[in-house]
């Protein structure tokens, strides 16, 4: 196993387990581990994920983490980083209160809900095109815009599948 794959398994597995822990003691025993919308995305689910997706997840995590460099001066960075952190804080309890299982589709739904404000600001203000910002921020804002848009391509599908499963 390559070093990149080991690192990505550790990082994403930790985040996935944290998400499930935050979600509370929901019964996901009827679901198998995996990356699909109706599967539990735990360490085993990450291991079953294709390598290119694992690399993408590592890029996504690094992109959001890089936003920490700008949160003190750039409101858009605060929205992006906050949107990344919020699902860990409020997403799990909400799913628990609704009695919904915390599956991969729930993660996709969280992305759509919590990342959309940052994406709206990034697309309407376009800091990646503005000479009023530092080069580093312009590069980061362009990268994070791409990361969110690309992620949404998959998240929309998975969130729809998940909602079709949990809504009566």
Secondary structure topology:
Blueprint: H1 3-23, H2 43-47, H3 51-66, H4 75-98, H5 104-125, H6 135-166
Helix pairs in contact: 1-3, 1-4, 3-6, 4-5, 5-6
Can you walk me through this structure?
The protein has one domain (3-166). It starts with a helix and ends with a helix. The longest helix is centred in the C-terminal third of the chain and has 32 residues, at 135-166. The radius of gyration is 16 Å and the shape is elongated. It is mainly alpha-helical and 168 residues long. The protein contains six helices and no strands.
Distance, first to last CA: 42 Å
SS-derived structural category? mainly alpha
Name the average pLDDT: 86
The percent range for helix content is over 70%
Show unreliable segments. Answer: 7-11, 17-23
Q: How much beta, percentage-wise?
A: under 5%
What's a quick, concise take on this entry?
This protein is mainly alpha-helical and 168 residues long. Helix content is 71%, strand content 0%.
Features:
168 residues, mainly alpha, elongated
């Amino acid at each position: 196993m390559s070093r990149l794959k080991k690192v990505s398994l550790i990082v994403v597995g930790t985040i996935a387990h944290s998400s499930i822990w935050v979600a509370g003691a929901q019964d996901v025993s009827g679901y198998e581990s995996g990356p699909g919308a109706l599967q539990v995305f735990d360490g085993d689910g990450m291991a079953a994920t294709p390598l290119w997706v694992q690399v993408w997840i590592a890029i996504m995590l690094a992109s959001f983490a890089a936003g920490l460099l700008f949160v003190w001066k750039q409101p858009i960075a605060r929205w992006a980083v906050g949107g990344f952190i919020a699902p860990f804080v409020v997403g799990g309890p909400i799913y628990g209160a609704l009695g919904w299982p915390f599956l991969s589709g729930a993660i996709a739904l969280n992305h759509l809900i919590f990342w959309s404000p940052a994406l709206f600001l990034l697309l309407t203000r376009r800091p990646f095109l503005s000479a009023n910002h530092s080069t580093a921020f312009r590069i980061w804002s362009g990268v994070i815009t791409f990361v969110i848009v690309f992620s949404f391509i998959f998240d929309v599908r998975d969130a729809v599948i998940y909602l079709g499963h949990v809504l009566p």
